[in-house]
Specification:
Blueprint lengths: L9 H14 L10 H4 L1 H10 L6 H20 L4 H24 L4 H22 L6 H7 E2 L12 E2 L6 H21 L5 H15 L2 H23 L5 H21 L4 H11 L3 H6 L1 H12 L12 H13 L13 H28 L1
Antiparallel strand pairs: 1-2
């Protein structure tokens, strides 16, 4: 029996996984996550599993604690917010520790989990479409904000996540899983799976995630073409696919030249795309400016952005209507603000280690 089912019934596991996947950020207007709320459960499961709390979880937690005396010496604006942020980070570490142990290692069980999530996601999309015509409700599942200059806001699917790009990011593993299966094996209802995996990403209209997926696939295709893709995608087939895509793009430009996709791509190249700028170089400019308010090497400390960095962000963007919640919409740049260049270096080293360690 797979280790994931020695302590948890599979039906409870599927229910918990579904709740976390779709509704993790849907509690209390997005101010409380299910992962944080269920911290006692992660601690209980960690203590009652054979693996316990892994050494990597303990090491990461210990490194986070090492920053506290440094930030305290530099000056912490709010110990309460610092403590709450640390609690959230420790909760996330415990969750990762539990997930790495209890997630099904059996291929059939993992496939069952992903299929359940794919079906639920499809049903939620069907429910979400009529909500576009109900102003009071559409904001729960659709993200409606301007993403580029001279471009009218268009509804972008977010379901119950904070925004569309967040939704497309967490949906990406499902997309990758099923598309690898479609390429590598014969799959039943393949056209249905293509629709169920592709439509959500198109509806989210997150060019960053879509571009990352395309670039990743091209790199994988180049590096592993002879080992795994040559039989499935022979050169002639690749040429046909390329020609079809090119014709489709040309027809789209000819018949609908002012479409949102081309409009946004044009704004990206011209530097007018506010969403693209805010998630890339502007996020690092702000991260550096905010870290410098205390110390560029150590940062301002977790939970301090809304107290120390808020004015910096407001002044940078010249907000007319200042939003209630202000963030840096880039996790790496946020690490720079909180933990300085030392934390940024540790983050990159950890990602490189996990890349080579876990393949």
């Amino acid at each position: 029996m797979p280790r994931s089912l020695t302590s948890i019934n599979s039906s409870y596991f599927l229910l918990l996984a579904s709740l976390l996947f779709f509704f993790n950020s849907a509690i209390w207007g997005g101010k409380l996550s299910l992962i944080l709320l269920l911290t006692p459960l992660w601690l209980f499961l960690s203590q009652n599993s054979k693996a316990g709390i892994s050494k990597w979880t303990l090491l990461t937690g210990f490194i986070l604690l090492l920053y506290f005396p440094i930030h305290y010496w530099l000056g912490i604006a709010s110990l309460m917010d610092y403590g709450k942020s640390l609690l959230m980070l420790f909760s996330l570490l415990l969750f990762i520790n539990v997930a790495s142990y209890y997630t099904p290692q059996n291929e059939q069980l993992l496939d069952k989990l992903f299929r359940k999530l794919l079906i639920i996601n499809g049903l939620l999309i069907l429910v979400s479409i009529p909500l576009l015509w109900i102003d009071e409700l559409k904001g729960f599942v659709w993200y409606i904000m301007s993403i580029s200059d001279d471009m009218q806001p268009i509804p972008r699917l977010k379901l119950f996540t904070p925004e569309a790009s967040h939704y497309s990011l967490i949906f990406s593993p499902i997309f990758i899983y099923f598309w690898i299966r479609l390429l590598m094996f014969k799959v039943k209802n393949s056209w249905l799976i293509v629709l169920l995996t592709t439509i959500p990403l198109l509806l989210s209209f997150s060019l960053g995630v879509l571009a990352a997926l395309c670039i990743s696939f091209l790199i994988l295709l180049i590096l592993k073409y002879r080992q795994g893709f040559m039989e499935m995608l022979p050169p002639r087939k690749l040429i046909y696919i390329g020609v079809v895509v090119l014709i489709g793009l040309v027809l789209l430009y000819y018949f609908y030249p002012d479409n949102p996709l081309y409009h946004r791509i044009q704004n990206l190249f011209e530097g007018k795309d506010t969403s693209g700028r805010g998630r890339t170089y502007e996020a690092f400019i702000l991260g550096d400016k905010i870290a410098a308010l205390k110390d560029r090497f150590w940062g301002i400390g977790p939970g301090q952005l809304k107290l120390i960095g808020r004015d910096t962000i407001v002044q940078y963007y010249f907000y007319f209507n200042i939003p209630e919640v202000i963030r840096i919409p880039n996790a790496t740049a946020e690490t720079l603000a909180y933990y300085g260049y030392s934390g940024l270096a540790l983050r990159i080293l950890l990602e490189l280690f996990l890349f080579f360690k876990t393949q």
